[in-house]
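Progress report, Aim 2. The chain analyzed during this reporting quarter is listed below.
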Amino acid sequence: MNKYKLNLFFIVLVAVIGGLLFGYDTAVISGAEKGLEHFFDSAQDFNYSDFWHGFTSSSALIGCIIGAFLSGVLSSRLGRKRTLFIAGVLFFISALGSYAPESGILPHSVPTKTLLIVFNLYRILGGIGVGLASAICPMYIAEIAPADKRGALVSWNQFAIIFGQLVVYFVNYLIVRSHVNDPAILEWTQHIGWRAMFGSECVPAAAFALLILLVPESPRYLALKGDDKKAIDVLSKLHPEEHARIIVREIHETAIETREPLFAFGWMVIFVGIMLSVFQQIVGINAVLYFAPRIFESMGVANPMVFTVIMGIVNIGFTLLAIFTVEKLGRKPLLIVGSLLMAVGAFGVALTNMTTLPAWVAVASILVYSASFMFSWGPICWVYMAELFPNTIRSQATAIAVAFQWISNFAVSSSFVPLYNYSHAMVYILYGVICLIAALFVWKLVPETKGKTLEQITTMWRESMKA
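Predicted structure tokens for the chain:
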């Protein structure tokens, strides 16, 4: 491995830890939500209703929306690197606060409405970190990566997200497993188990905050800010210096101003970006990921936590499939095929809920649904978020698109339990139909960006306005 590849490898490795924390933070609730429910059910000063449980299970998503909106302003003013450092600090504070929401002030392990509010504030704080990382990590990788490797390298961010989810599934399983033979396991889970699950995030959060200080700022951010010398210095660690100077020149040739109005390239690029984000969520995947143990339990699976880990392993494998095929097959084919197979999986789950088919058919359908997302909408949407928007509007456009993604995520996650309780079959039929609409949208409106530099994509959108 030459020095350029080694430098690129280290930078991307550090950046994708942000993706790992994204996955870890959003999925930790899957193992902790029942313990939280038992803990706050015993509160004396308020009724911990289904509304409160649904809100507590998804409150981090409110922070994700806030973080996504803030990402555009912060990454433009402070840079990509400093914004990611802020995200790492927020991850750490949230993990520590969620572990001990009493904060040394409230009575320890006494469930009250005040404690619930404080807990949710810590979760929202972590969500802001997730929102920042979800927008900035793929953007940062795309602005560092060579054009012929950009899709694969940005897809590693999705791999890290899924790996983070798998890690936390496994950590949650080990935490529960450590007390599985304890006669008082319910009491232990109610007062300590969920705390351990949230507190475990402190380790990767601290590592990310420290390691991000060792990577350079995005060269495209530096060039757009007029600091060509630093931009060339960074690019020279990734390319021969002559090539680095050519890249900086191309950045300036496509940038009429450091920052242009949001609709400087027309409304279609913004619309496509927003809808890619919306479809990634309304196909329903995060409802499955967040509530996986509950879903497998409803299917009659004996050990739902084990099947949740198995699903995580399958997801890892199919995310790798995307990484190794995205530069060969392109973005659009993977999205279209993934959408169609997700529809098959969703309709399969619905069918098992309307008939007397055995439980393994439902489990297999869930795995098809989940795996199909992992080689298509999971990584490819993030690739598009990182490369679709022209250089001069990337920060603000990405912030808006990712904010819509988290709004959609919140809508799906908070509505899943009521819909699922109303009709198991109906909710999966709904997701299946949305998957088919998503395939049609990609086929008709989404451009292929495989092999194009960020500057060529900028030119493509500018010329589309003249057509």
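Residues 23 and 161 are 4 Å apart (CA to CA). The mean pLDDT is 84. These observations will guide the mutagenesis work planned for the next reporting period.
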